[in-house]
Amino acid sequence: MSLNAVRAPRTTPAAPATAPRPRLEPVASPAARRKPKLMYALVALGGAVAIGAAQIGLSLAITQDSFTLAGLSSQQRELDLRTQALQEDLTGLSSPQALASSAAGLGMIVAGSPSYLRLSDGAVFGAGTGSGWASTVDPNGSGAVSNSLLSSQAAGGAEATATDDEAEAASQAEQLPPAITDGLPSPTTR
């Protein structure tokens, strides 16, 4: 058999059906634009203003805090200096020399030799006699070495009441070496 007999007859395909095209017509008037919603614009503008105000407020708060911190730091430095000055005054007032001068000013005396009391039987060891009216140590005598921490006190232990001119003269005198009138201070030896 032949190949032609087996083949189906050839037909030409039909042209596809096309939809009719819409006709273009000129527009008589443009389409009406929709008005933007006023509420959306106000919310956006209010949000921007709120963010700006918050930033300005935070900047002012941070700036104010830095001024406050600087003021407190300055105050802390002043208090530290005052504390240091008061500590130096306390050290000078609690020195043995100041205590001895204050005791001598109050009429207290240093006895020659100490006496001890034994509590178990009441025995007294040492001289066992009271001290006289004269002290064996003179803390304000010619052999006393001046204490630079006690420069603001008078010799009797009371605070000196100096005017500004006297205070200035005293500060200048502190810078100079002490005058030697009675010779060099030295202990008495035998």
Describe the structure.
By secondary structure, the chain is mainly alpha-helical. The protein has a domain at about 40-100. The chain contains four helices and two strands; from the N terminus they run H-H-H-E-E-H. A two-stranded antiparallel ribbon has the order 1-2. The longest helix is centred in the middle third of the chain and has 56 residues, at about 40-95. The radius of gyration is 53 Å and the shape is rod-shaped. It starts with a helix and ends in a 15-residue tail after the last helix.
Largest sheet: 2 strands, antiparallel
Radius of gyration: 53 Å
What share of residues are in beta strands?
A: under 5%
Q: What shape does the CA trace take? A: rod-shaped
Point out poorly predicted stretches: 153-162
| N-to-C CA distance | 164 Å
Structural class: mainly alpha
How many strands? 2
Strand order of the largest sheet: 1-2
Give the overall average pLDDT: 75
Sketch the topology as an H/E string, one letter per element: HHHEEH
Brief summary of the model shown:
This protein is mainly alpha-helical. It has a domain at 42-98. Helices cover 43% and strands 3% of the residues.
